[in-house]
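2024-03-11 09:14:02 INFO worker-7 job=invfold-0412 stage=load source=structure_tokens
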């Protein structure tokens, strides 16, 4: 394991500190991915005024949910956990079937809207900004990801402080600081979402190829980072 990227760590701490100071109240929307665990570690070790929340969709891997307790034990921090509206889930399952998302993108996107997008909206109420662990190298749809953008749907600033980090740099940081991580990565997973919608990747595939693998590559987003017209809307702003 290579050593943690010292310059990267310093830059990340500076950016997060500025977000906490200039764009409060702010929150990290954590999927409990390796990237989000890097940000979580720095936020909590630096005692930054940034809330951290996660979305329990009701279809998560147990290994993913185990990180909620791992964070509490390691840092003494209780993540805010948001869940979908039970009535909306029941209505979807009753009308279409529990795993109807396999039948077409429209029903998959509707499931994501109930289990992820709606709870995210609740989590971000009252916030001026939110933070993600997205990286440009994760997929072609994220190649132009800026460090800072404007979320027109929710009317707040959005920061992607790991946008230009490599996968190796993420894992170097985790190794250097002994950050808790999802053990599914050791089984070939490289991007982890809901259990029925995630599989390990194989050699030559991009990081997010295991997400919604039965769909066309261009549609493989859950709606959290998609503009109202269905495109990945990006601004060119950068963190000052």
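2024-03-11 09:14:09 INFO worker-7 stage=emit residues=240
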């Amino acid at each position: 394991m290579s050593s943690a990227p010292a310059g990267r760590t310093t830059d990340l701490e500076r950016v997060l500190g500025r977000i906490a100071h200039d764009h409060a109240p702010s929150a990290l929307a954590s999927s409990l991915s390796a990237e989000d665990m890097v940000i979580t570690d720095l936020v909590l070790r630096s005692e930054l005024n940034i809330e951290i929340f996660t979305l329990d969709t009701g279809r998560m891997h147990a290994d993913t949910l185990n990180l909620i307790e791992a964070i509490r034990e390691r840092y003494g921090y209780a993540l805010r956990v948001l869940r979908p509206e039970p009535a909306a889930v029941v209505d979807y399952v009753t009308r279409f079937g529990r795993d109807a998302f396999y039948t077409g993108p429209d029903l998959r996107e509707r499931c994501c809207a109930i289990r992820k997008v709606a709870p995210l909206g609740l989590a971000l109420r009252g916030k001026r900004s939110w933070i993600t662990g997205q990286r440009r190298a994760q997929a072609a749809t994220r190649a132009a990801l800026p460090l800072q953008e404007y979320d027109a749907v929710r009317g707040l600033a959005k920061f992607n402080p790991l946008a230009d980090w490599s996968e190796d740099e993420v894992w170097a940081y985790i190794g250097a600081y002994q950050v808790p991580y999802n053990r599914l990565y050791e089984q070939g997973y490289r991007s982890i979402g809901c259990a029925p919608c995630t599989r390990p990747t194989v050699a030559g595939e991009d990081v997010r190829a295991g997400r919604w693998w039965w769909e066309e590559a261009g549609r493989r987003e859950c709606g959290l980072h998609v503009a109202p017209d269905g495109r990945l809307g990006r601004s060119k702003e950068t963190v000052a």
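2024-03-11 09:14:09 INFO worker-7 stage=report msg="The chain has six helices and six strands."
2024-03-11 09:14:10 INFO worker-7 job finished
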